[in-house]
Design goal:
The chain is of the alpha+beta class. It has one domain. It has 4 helices and 9 strands, in the order αβαββββββββαα. It has a 6-stranded antiparallel beta barrel. The chain has a 3-stranded mixed beta sheet with strand order 1-4-7. The chain is elongated. The termini are far apart. Mean pLDDT is 90; it is low at 17-22.
């Protein structure tokens, strides 16, 4: 009988320990949506650069979700003629169990051949961009160039193979 009690106690302790580890590790928005933990509505606020995205996040789970959105994550426009957005500021945040939260996201357009996103256009969570765009997004994040038009032009150089000569000092 004591063997059964010991085994049950060990299983409970392992379960509690595992759940506490998982609860303290942030998961990406992409993973949270794929696993059904989170309902996500993404809308453009209009514009090429800055806090151009508003996300409404609804936690469908019975536990607080520790989440993150990575610099370099693409947000895909549902309107084929409007530009996708490259997230330029990493954010760690949480959404309490069964709660809804709004999050403003900094990003830059990453399809120079398409038009500027209009206010209230629909977006979906995309994949991480290619490694060069991720490196550039991390550089923008590290240096806090979130609203810098020269940085926006650099994004288009990488995303659309634009000439380096297309980068001007438009921030003076």
């Amino acid at each position: 009988m004591s063997f059964c009690k010991t085994t049950v106690c060990m299983l409970i302790a392992m379960n509690v320990f595992t759940n506490s580890i998982l609860a303290n590790n942030a998961i990406s928005l992409e993973d949270a949506v794929k696993k059904g933990f989170l309902k996500l509505v993404i809308k453009s606020r209009g514009g090429y650069t800055g806090d151009v995205i508003e996300m409404k996040l609804q936690n469908n789970s019975s536990q607080k979700l520790d989440l993150n959105i990575e610099a370099g994550r693409r947000l895909d426009s549902k309107i084929s003629t409007e530009q996708d957005i490259l997230v330029t500021q990493s954010q760690d945040f949480f959404v309490n169990a069964k709660q809804t939260r709004t999050l403003m996201v900094y990003g830059m357009c990453c399809q120079a051949h398409n038009s500027c996103p209009r206010n209230n256009s629909d977006y979906s969570i995309g994949k991480l961009a290619d490694s060069n765009l991720v490196k550039l997004a991390n550089f923008i994040d590290k240096n806090k160039y979130y609203t810098n038009f020269t940085a926006q032009q650099a994004v288009w150089v990488v995303s659309d193979n634009k000439s380096l000569a297309s980068i001007t000092d438009g921030d003076k």
